[in-house]
Amino acid sequence: MEGANLSVVSEFVFLGLTASWQTQLLLFVFSSMFYVASMMGNSLIVFTVASDPHLHSPMYFLLANLSFVDLGVSSVTSPKMIYDLFRKYKVISFKGCITQIFFIHVIGGVEMVLLIAMAFDRYVAICKPLHYLTIMNPGMCISFLVAAWVVGLTHSLVQLVFVLNLAFCGPNVLDSFYCDFPRFIKLACTDTYPMELLVSINSGFMSVASFLILIFSYIVIIFTVQKHSPSGSSKALSTLSSHVTVVSLFFGPVIFFYTWPSSYTDLDKFLAIFDAIVTPFLNPVIYTFRNQEMKMAMKRLFRQLMVNDRIS
User: Fold this and answer.
1) Which residues of 280-294 are buried (b: 16+ CB within 10 A; e: fewer)?
2) pLDDT at residue 1, as a whole number
């Protein structure tokens, strides 16, 4: 923390996404719609799973927690980005920037572990159906959840501890609409290569390793099903397709950010918007529309709410 006291930078200036008024208006409408939709969709999943006894199973427990985390994904950067679109001077305080970085990496770490847990859940359900309830017992589900938050907090704090010891004496301009390690570190008044390497190893390795684990698990599931029941491979593929889609949408931008941290292009900003706004919206859409049980539970919930409204 001694290095933090040497810092003279009290705020950072975002260059934002574009200087075009028409593009800003389009982004405002686009971002606002997706932000509201993702908040409503993920909240609906959490509420539906919590209120419907038919969904009190390991798969939906993990899905509800993923939706809860996606509420955080939507809220960490999107509201300020939307608020800043029409502001000429887009600023964030030093503490606000550090807080944003902290939550981005906590939530990112939690989501990675939850996606691995969901892949494990599907592996057990498809490959070991007779032992599913024994393996995926409540204790196992809670263990996955605790592990997710421990990994997320550790992943974020390990990097943040080193960043807080850096001195920032200017410049203070970030060519982005949010704070994150790669660009933030480059503004420090010191040799930043060791820290950039740490971030690439920590965040880059974690995202690539998690992605490979997930892809490997899906391949194992497909081969196992095909070996024991060739006719069931198409059903397994259909079940896993939603998981593969979510995994690809989440890990694609993340791997790009942390394995090529110096590639600051328009594509980088586009992927950042996609990751912050579109992905949290697509997750509930993908899992809901491809899941008959979830759709039925939502219909029961709406009917119950309508009955209660009439009674009141």
Assistant:
1) bbbbbebbbeebeeb
2) 41
Residue 229 pLDDT exceeds 80 = no
Question: Residue-wise over 184-194: b if at least 16 C-beta within 10 A, else e?
Answer: bbebbbeebee
Residue carrying the six token digits 């965040």: 203
pLDDT of 70 over the 60 cut: yes
Between the ranges 74-83, 180-189, 273-282, where is the mean pLDDT highest?
74-83
For every residue of the chain, DSSP letters joined together read: -HHHHT----EEEE--S-S-HHHHHHHHHHHHHHHHHHHHHHHHHHHHHHH-GGG-SHHHHHHHHHHHHHHHHHHHHHHHHHHHTT-SSEEEEHHHHHHHHHHHHHHHHHHHHHHHHHHHHHHHHHH-GGGHHHHS-HHHHHHHHHHHHHHHHHHHHHHHHHHTTS---S--EESSSS--HHHHHTTSSS--HHHHHHHIIIIIHHHHHHHHHHHHHHHHHHHHHHHH-GGGHHHHHHHHHHHHHHHHHHHHHHHHHHHSTT--SHHHHHHHHIIIIIHHHHHHHHHHHT-HHHHHHHHHHHHHHHHHHHH-
Alpha-carbon gap, residue 31 to 79, rounded angstroms: 9
Structure tokens at 122: 């599907």
Omega before 171 cis (within 30°)? yes
Q: Cα 277–278–283 angle (5° rounding)? A: 115
153 band by pLDDT with thresholds 50, 70 and 90: very high
Tens-digit pLDDT profile for residues 162-190: 888 888 887 899 888 899 888 888 888 88
Identify whether the C-beta of residue 263 lies closer than 8 Å to the C-beta of residue 20.
no
CB-CB contact of 31 with 273 (8 Å):
yes
| Separation CA 198–CA 176 (nearest Å) | 21
Q: Are 214 and 199 in contact (CB under 8 A)?
A: no
